[in-house]
Specification:
Layout: H1 13-32, E1 51-54, H2 70-73, E2 76-81, E3 84-89, E4 95-97, H3 102-107, E5 112-115, H4 117-121, E6 133-134, H5 140-146, E7 150-154, H6 160-166, E8 169-172, H7 179-189, H8 193-218, E9 223-230, E10 233-237, H9 245-251, E11 255-256, H10 258-263, E12 269-272, H11 277-280, E13 284-289, H12 301-304, H13 307-310, E14 314-318, H14 327-342
Parallel strand pairs: 4-5, 4-7, 5-6, 7-8, 9-11, 9-13, 13-14
Antiparallel strand pairs: 1-2, 2-3, 9-10, 10-12
């Protein structure tokens, strides 16, 4: 499809109510006064690369890639986001994620106080999101009550000007950078660049090695298709649309079914009818299924006669655990592929 909070303070029930009222008034007043100088969809200069640089309030000379001092850990750094520089906490403790990056924050061990509904619905995250509140970009009152010190969203998140008045806001455009660079960028925003890079290096090595084992077992010419049943539709995906595609086709170097490769080249995915499923089926199929999806196509003779189906080479998985390509989901996807292809 990660600290000292500016808002953290001990207040009585009456005090919290007054704080909420005052902050809401300030948020809406500031948002109404001209919509801020920063647009919701500002794009970076073509040559700029998102990066974190040391700054700002407490330690102007500290490097974010160096071990931060105790002073820097309670101060801020300047993160060079795709929308421009954002001053963020050097040691965030109350992060809200409004898009598909929850697993990246969890992988880096940074505390969360609010996440999007997709993350809440992911069974793989359930034990790690105990006590974390479900929020959206329209839940401004709820977000204020959670007292975040950093908000992470997408470039099309709503109410961005208002969210910026609550806490520093960092947004990302899906697939603007590759999935591993995305994790690194989130690591920079959280002042965890070293940890993010270490995970990336290790994950690439493990996934590549597993890919060699899989190719040795299934043969160098075997093809793989990734499909998903969602609502009343069936989709197939290219090499950069979550669902494990990045691992299978980029890191492992497995062969995408040729018709899938052609059809997904433009948009990254392609909608299929039940009648044409055999034309897009690889020798192996990863079938991601939403619990509420119409799977009647699996009862048709057309589907049952697909060679991968007849040879028991269809590996089904709960789509809620497979949508995204955040670091924690990637770990689960790699484990799933090793189990299904290699039996370990």
């Amino acid at each position: 499809m990660k600290r000292q909070s500016f808002f953290r303070m001990n207040r009585s029930k009456r005090g919290r109510g007054l704080l909420l009222f005052a902050m809401m008034a300030a948020v809406f007043a500031l948002a109404a006064c001209g919509n801020s100088n920063n647009g919701n969809h500002s794009s970076p200069a073509a040559s700029s690369q998102p990066a974190a640089t040391a700054s700002a309030s407490q330690s102007a000379s500290a490097s974010p890639s160096a071990s931060p001092s105790a002073e820097a850990q309670t101060g801020t750094i300047t993160y060079q986001s795709e929308a421009g520089p954002v001053e963020v906490p050097a040691n965030p403790q109350r992060v809200i994620v409004l898009s598909g990056y929850t697993g990246d924050v969890l992988q880096l061990g940074v505390p969360l106080v609010g996440v999007d509904s997709w993350s809440v619905a992911n069974p793989r995250f359930a034990d790690k999101l105990q006590g974390v509140t479900e929020v959206s970009d329209e839940d401004l009152e709820k977000i204020i009550e959670l007292q975040p010190d950093l908000i992470i969203g997408s470039s099309d998140s709503k109410n961005q000007d208002k969210l910026k008045q609550i806490a520093p806001l960092v947004t990302y455009t899906y697939n603007k950078v590759d999935y591993l660079t995305q994790h690194l960028e989130i690591g920079k925003a959280l002042n965890k660049e070293k940890e993010a890079q270490a995970w990336i290096d290790d994950f690439k090595q493990r996934a590549t090695a597993a890919g060699e084992e899989i190719k040795a077992k299934i043969g160098p010419d075997a093809t793989v298709s990734v499909m998903e049943a969602y609502d009343k539709e069936v989709y197939t995906f290219g090499d950069a649309w979550g669902r494990g595609t990045e691992i299978l086709f980029q890191l492992m170097g497995l062969n995408m079914q040729p018709k899938v490769k052609e059809s997904t080249a433009k948009d990254g995915y392609f909608t299929l009818s039940a009648e044409v499923l055999p034309d897009y089926a690889g020798d192996y199929i990863i079938l991601s299924k939403d619990p509420g999806a119409d799977t009647s196509f699996q009862k048709t003779e057309t589907y049952k006669n697909i060679p991968a189906v007849k040879n028991n080479r269809v590996y089904e998985v709960d789509s809620r655990t497979f949508y995204f390509n955040d670091a924690m989901t990637l770990e689960w996807q790699l484990a799933f592929f090793k189990e299904k292809f290699l039996g370990n």
